């Protein structure tokens, strides 16, 4: 720093006396020196920061282009530098490990983003429901339909996003997708998924419906090692960004509805139709949706930890809908997991979706688990290099097994009439089961 300012002062002094040519040369020299100094300063700050630190990886020889169609999932993943990643893990160099962890997300995402190769059945149309307003939470029909906003956290569930956007069209007016440039787990860099999807033909029709909220690197630099802190932080951000958006647009008014949940907590068309057209009784401002939790295939039902009431053990009490006035009452509104005093039934928790690239991405990023270790990476490498699609199929089946849940999972046919009211498959999935065969634990042609 000292050297640089001295040089700058000195140069400016001499410039005054010198001719035009040497003035130019000196200006160029100043620019060059400033550039180098700035660069050094920047890298110095980067190195000092315990969170942003991430090893540079020369990936030139492994770069992929036109992956889709040219490579199978297996041959694509064979190009990930497994050996170098394993070396980095062995050496314990955290910055390098972070680099390879981030890189595998990018590799997996390349297949996760591929929309299904099966063409949607255009003759299968979205059903239209008529509101009855007969649920006890309602006092009657609204004079005009409410606007509905849905605020969701989003990770990597591209197939789920396609299904829910079809589900919500014409019923949900705005869907606020909160994404972060870093994962919950060790703040690893990750792609912003909506940014990469929004111009693709499947997603373009929904671009007016989606409001993209992004948590960028700046606040995350301050994140601590507490993995849950980031989730709480994101909930907070989701709300404050919404409030800011609505203050400017004035799009939602007091009696409109806001839903809070994860991308995979999907209310039925019937529930959305009722919420949109019916008036809550005066004292009610928050309602949970009791949804069915099939845990990976549409033929099952899971006894959840967060039912809407004890007689409905096979429901999960999310998402949660508030009137805007109710949500503004104070604090940060969020999903209530069945603890709200009121509920309405119908929907599907699209969790445990068994498409291998999505599962592996979740393994690599989820808050509770860190699967980027030597044993797991070695196993992945062996499987990807087996050149045997059966191995991939078996791997998927093994990862999707729910046998450890034992009797908490029953056949969906065994549900009693009350619990069965919550069961509802999103219409786009119902019409296009062939596009999403993992929901029936069948092989997905994208992986063959
Ligand atoms: C990527 O594209 C470049 C230029 O089109 C080509 O030379 C290269 O071989 C491609 N790489 C792969 C792995 O396909
Ligand atoms: C699978 O194919 C790759 C080349 O794509 C090769 O390097 C590897 O040895 C093969 N694995 C087996 C088990 O044959």
UniProtKB/TrEMBL annotation:
What keywords appear on the UniProt entry? Membrane, Transmembrane, Transmembrane helix
InterPro entries for the chain: Glyco_trans_17 (IPR006813)
**What parts of the sequence cross the membrane?**
27-47
Q: Which biological process, per GO, is one annotated for this protein? A: N-acetylglucosamine metabolic process
Q: Name one GO cellular component term.
A: membrane
Supply one GO molecular-function term.
Answer: beta-1,4-mannosylglycoprotein 4-beta-N-acetylglucosaminyltransferase activity
Q: Which domain of life is it from?
A: Eukaryota
Looking up PANTHER family in the UniProt record yields:
BETA-1,4-MANNOSYL-GLYCOPROTEIN 4-BETA-N-ACETYLGLUCOSAMINYLTRANSFERASE, BETA-1,4-MANNOSYL-GLYCOPROTEIN BETA-1,4-N-ACETYLGLUCOSAMINYL-TRANSFERASE
What's the protein name?
A: Uncharacterized protein
């Amino acid at each position: 720093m000292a050297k640089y300012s001295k040089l700058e002062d000195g140069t400016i002094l001499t410039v005054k006396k010198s001719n035009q040519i040497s003035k130019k040369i000196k200006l160029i020299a100043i620019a060059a020196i400033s550039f180098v100094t700035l660069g050094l300063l920047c890298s110095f700050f980067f190195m000092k920061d315990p969170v942003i630190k991430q090893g540079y990886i020369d990936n030139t020889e492994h770069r992929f282009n036109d992956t889709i169609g040219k490579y199978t999932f297996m041959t694509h993943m064979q190009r990930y530098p497994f050996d170098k990643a394993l070396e980095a893990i062995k050496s314990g160099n955290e910055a390098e490990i972070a680099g390879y962890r981030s890189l595998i997300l990018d590799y997996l995402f390349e297949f996760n983003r591929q929309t299904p190769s099966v063409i949607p059945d255009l003759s299968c149309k979205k059903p239209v429901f008529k509101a009855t307003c007969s649920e006890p939470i309602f006092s009657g029909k609204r004079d005009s339909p409410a606007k509905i906003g849905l605020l969701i956290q989003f990770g990597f569930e591209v197939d789920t996003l396609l299904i829910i956007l079809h589900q919500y069209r014409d019923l949900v007016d705005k869907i606020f997708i909160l994404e972060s440039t870093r994962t919950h787990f060790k703040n690893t860099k990750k792609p912003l998924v909506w940014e990469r999807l929004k111009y693709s033909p499947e997603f373009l029709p929904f671009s007016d419906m989606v409001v993209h909220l992004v948590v960028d690197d700046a606040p995350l630099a301050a994140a601590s090692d507490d993995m849950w802190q980031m989730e709480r932080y994101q909930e907070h951000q989701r709300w404050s960004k919404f409030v800011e958006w609505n203050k400017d647009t004035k799009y939602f008014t007091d009696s409109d509805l806001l839903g809070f949940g994860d991308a995979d907590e999907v209310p039925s068309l019937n529930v959305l139709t009722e919420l949109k057209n019916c008036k809550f009784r005066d004292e009610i401002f928050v309602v949970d949706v009791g949804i069915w939790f099939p845990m990976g295939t549409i033929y099952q039902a899971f006894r959840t930890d967060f039912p809407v009431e004890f007689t409905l053990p096979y429901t999960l009490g999310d998402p949660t809908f508030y009137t805007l006035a109710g949500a503004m009452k104070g604090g940060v509104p969020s999903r209530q997991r069945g603890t709200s005093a009121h509920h309405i039934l119908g929907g599907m928790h699209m969790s445990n979706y068994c498409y291998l690239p999505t599962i592996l991405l979740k393994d690599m990023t989820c808050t509770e688990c860190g699967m980027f270790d030597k044993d797991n990476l070695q196993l992945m490498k062996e499987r990807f290099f087996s050149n045997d699609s059966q191995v991939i199929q078996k791997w998927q089946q093994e990862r999707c097994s729910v046998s450890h849940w034992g009797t908490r999972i029953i056949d969906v046919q065994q549900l009693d009439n009350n619990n069965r009211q919550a069961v509802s498959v999103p219409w786009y999935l119902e019409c296009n089961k062939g596009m999403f065969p993992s929901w029936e634990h069948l092989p997905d042609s994208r992986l063959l």
